[in-house]
């Protein structure tokens, strides 16, 4: 297939590009390199040293003989260029990762909220409008988030996107209705992914676009089979308070002797997936495209759930790291349960990589190798969800 990977320079985008290219697909990366600009804005860098995207593509060609094409294009701002690109290139599939993906970054200031909404919602809508206008029929696969569901503990499993409900009509008769699972986003970032769902629903129903939305959990790990092949193919790896995600942060903190930064009681339960499974799920989703006229296909892209304090305890046991309970900079339930259905990917053949010591240790090793690149003062999470929440102070012991 000819596949366009929008956001192909990012943390999940890059390993996906390599995975799909390795499978023999013709892969085009479309990216505005905004994630690299945000590094500059925040004054932090990936733990791992990353080459330019052009250099990464050159190395991949050297290692495998396979060509990756890179197109510098801003999806949210360059609508006409996007449309022309689609008309000229007619991709069979489009993987859409091109959104600002950090919840803390989206809550930093009003400017960051506005940027996240403008960027994410425009990127998605521009893509959908351009696909309709260009008359092509690609399978659009979007990377959404488990966070659209919210984390209220109702004691029931979260279904894959849709909920069957029963309502009573005016005659008092019971009627069945299938609805999108009600969204309850916990940040402006998660809110944009909730808005994306409505855009997808409309364009699937109105224009017959073929769309798959992947509700992904928190990704952990860094290497995939392909990024391991050459030092210069290495994936980016975030440790800072805005972009670093919880499990990877704990592993990096353990590697540099920084106490594990548990927010509040650590009673938050979240869904997780290893980066290797993440790229495999994209492959599986591509193999199971919806037909024109189908509703949006929604998968829960996660393999296991864990409570934050249990993860901290596990890593502490593994590495001897200290655990530190901090005031939570976020507005979120202090404790929640989470049960998630993920049968669709299992039925398609996903063999989950679960949290096992070997892979956890591998991340600690990577972090130790590049520890000299870490600025410890950037480890605390300082973006507060509301003005009355005091930002977490620098607690470096
Ligand atoms: N947390 C800590 N300590 C830390 C960092 C986080 O206790 O040092 C807690 C947070 O308060 C939160 C939980 O860990 O309760 C998860 O935080 P996170 O930063 O790992 O994940 P989140 O902000 O939800 O966002 C990440 C990705 C996002 C993706 C989402 C999937 O950045 O792109 O959509 O995970 S999900 O969480 O399932 O919505």
Quickly list its features.
seven-stranded parallel sheet, alpha/beta, three-stranded mixed sheet, Rossmann fold, binds sulfoquinovose-uridine-C1,5'-diphosphate, 36% helix, 14 strands
Structure characterization notes:
The protein is of the alpha/beta class and 397 residues long. It has a single domain, classed as 3-Layer(aba) Sandwich (Rossmann fold). Helix content is 36%, strand content 19%. The chain is built from 12 helices and 14 strands. The protein has helices spanning 13-22, 34-42, 53-64, 79-89, 103-106, 110-134, 188-207, 246-256, 275-286, 308-319, 343-347, 357-369, and strands spanning 2-6, 26-31, 68-72, 93-96, 139-145, 162-168, 174-180, 210-216, 218-220, 260-263, 269-274, 297-301, 304-307, 323-326. The strands form 4 sheets. A 7-stranded parallel sheet has the order 3-2-1-4-5-8-12, with helices on both faces. Strands 9-11-13 form a 3-stranded mixed sheet. A two-stranded antiparallel ribbon has the order 6-7. α8 (246-256) runs parallel beside α10. Sulfoquinovose-uridine-C1,5'-diphosphate (USQ) binds next to α8, β10 and β11.
């Amino acid at each position: 297939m000819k596949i366009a990977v929008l956001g192909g320079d990012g943390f999940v985008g890059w390993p996906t590009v390599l995975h799909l290219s390795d499978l023999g697909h013709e892969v085009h990366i479309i990216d505005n390199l905004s994630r690299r600009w945000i590094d500059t804005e925040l004054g932090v860098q990936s733990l791992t040293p990353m080459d330019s995207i052009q250099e990464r593509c050159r190395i991949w060609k050297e290692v495998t003989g396979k060509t990756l094409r890179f197109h510098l294009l801003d999806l949210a701002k360059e609508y006409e260029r996007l449309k022309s690109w689609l008309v000229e290139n007619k991709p069979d599939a489009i993987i859409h990762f091109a959104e600002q993906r950090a919840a803390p970054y989206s809550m930093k200031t009003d400017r960051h909220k506005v940027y996240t909404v403008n960027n994410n919602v425009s990127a998605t809508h521009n893509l959908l409008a351009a696909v309709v206008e260009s008359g092509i029929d690609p399978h659009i696969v979007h990377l959404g988030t488990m966070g659209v569901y919210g984390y209220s503990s109702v004691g029931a499993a979260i279904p894959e996107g849709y909920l069957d409900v029963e309502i009573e009509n005016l005659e008092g008769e019971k009627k069945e209705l299938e609805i999108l699972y009600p969204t309850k986003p916990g940040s402006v970032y998660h809110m944009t992914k909730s808005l994306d769902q409505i855009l997808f629903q409309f364009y699937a129903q109105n224009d017959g676009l073929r769309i798959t939305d992947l509700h992904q959990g928190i990704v952990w790990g860094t290497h995939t089979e392909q990024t391991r092949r050459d030092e210069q193919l290495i994936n980016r790896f975030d440790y800072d308070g805005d972009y670093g995600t919880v499990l990877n942060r704990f592993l990096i903190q353990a590697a540099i002797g920084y106490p594990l930064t548990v927010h509040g009681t650590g009673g938050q339960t979240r869904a997780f997936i290893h980066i290797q499974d993440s790229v495999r799920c994209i492959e599986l989703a591509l193999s199971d495209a919806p037909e024109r006229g189908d509703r949006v296909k929604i998968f829960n892209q996660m393999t296991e759930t864990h409570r934050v304090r249990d993860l901290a305890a596990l890593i502490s046991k593994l590495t001897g790291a200290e655990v530190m309970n901090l005031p939570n900079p976020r507005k979120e339930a202090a404790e929640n349960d989470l049960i998630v259905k993920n049968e669709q990917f299992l039925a398609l053949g996903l063999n989950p990589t679960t949290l096992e010591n070997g892979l956890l240790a591998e991340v600690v090793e990577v972090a130790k190798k590049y520890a000299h690149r870490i600025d410890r003062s950037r480890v605390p999470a300082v973006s507060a969800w509301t003005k009355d929440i005091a930002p977490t102070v620098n607690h470096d012991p």
